Amino acid sequence: MRILVATDFSPRSQRAVRRAGILAAQSRGTVIMMHVVDGPGCRETSQDIREAQRMTVEQVAVVPELYRVRCEPLVVRGNPSSEILNAAEDHDADLIVVGSSHRGPSRNAGRTVRNLVRSARCPVLVVRRFAASPYERVLIPVDLSDASKRALGSAGELKLVDSAHVTVLHAFEAPGKSKLSGFGVERDQIDGYVEACRSKSAEDIEALLASGGFDDRDWSRRTEEGSPPEAITRIAERIPTDLLVIGTHARTGLRKAIFGSVTEDVLSRAGPDVLVVPPPRSDLGCQPLLPPTAGRPEVGPSGPRLVLG
């Protein structure tokens, strides 16, 4: 597995680097340690690039989780989110890892995170908590769609759930429940109706897991009455959760993720790490990430070179 991790040498990116190292060790993968220098291309920026490469190499050397992991330092100049997206394509990354403050991202960091999760063609892991060990408790909300199956599959392929207790959550609503009491329906009959809806939702979860080949996994299943945003918030607060996994639908990005605006709310508040799984590449279109004539300097282990977009 090839993991591209973005670093600006801040505490939040240090958490991301450590998580990337943990994941690479689990999968025997490679970490591409990337820093983007934002500048106009003057002499000072060239000096910044050289200094950034030195700091990137030093960060690789001092992070314990990277000691036995293959690492490739990468420094480029340009807009952070655009360059990270292009590097993920150029280096065939399987996962982008980026840090975010556990108190909610700062303005600039938040903009970069939003751009990445909306536009990346590979999964994006937003790291918000201190990383010291593999994930132990993972919550995967599902809406019974292909996006949910992709989220389940990506969590397994990326080795995020190998040693974790996984809870698959499906929220359901009982249509017309609020009107039944007004029609004189007894409380026990209403409760029986809700339980019938719950049973149907449990069957739907099993069908989803079976269709994706996940029915043999030792994963917990939960059905919660209420809207998806309410259910996710309630369960994430009720049970310890290290990672939340969410799949997005085609052409909709983060704003139209499986549970709508709740996904952005999750990333704007304190909480667990979040893995955002995009739709297949064929559903994203084929627009280039950079204009065909654009060029950018790239500095790798062997020195600077010009990469044409």
Fold and architecture overview:
By secondary structure, this protein is α/β, with parallel strands linked by helices. The protein has two domains: 2-128 and 286-308, Rossmann fold; 137-277, 3-Layer(aba) Sandwich (Rossmann fold), CATH 3.40.50.620. Helices cover 39% and strands 23% of the residues. The protein has nine helices and twelve strands. It has helices spanning 11-27, 43-62, 80-90, 107-119, 146-157, 177-180, 187-211, 228-238, 262-268, and strands at 2-6, 30-37, 70-77, 95-99, 124-127, 137-141, 165-172, 220-225, 243-247, 273-277, 295-300, 303-308. Strands 8-7-6-9-10-5-4-1-2-3-11-12 form a twelve-stranded mixed sheet, sandwiched between helices. β11 and β12 (303-308) form a beta hairpin. α3 runs parallel beside α4 (107-119). The longest helix has 25 residues, at 187-211. It is elongated, with a radius of gyration of 21 Å. It starts with a strand and ends with a strand.
Describe, in short, the structure shown.
The chain is an alpha/beta fold. It contains 9 helices and 12 strands.
Can you summarize the main beta sheet? 12 strands, mixed
Separation of the first and last Cα atoms: 24 Å
Strands ordered across the widest β-sheet: 8-7-6-9-10-5-4-1-2-3-11-12
Mean pLDDT: 79
As a percent range, the share of helical residues equals 25-40%
- Find the CATH topology of the largest domain: Rossmann fold
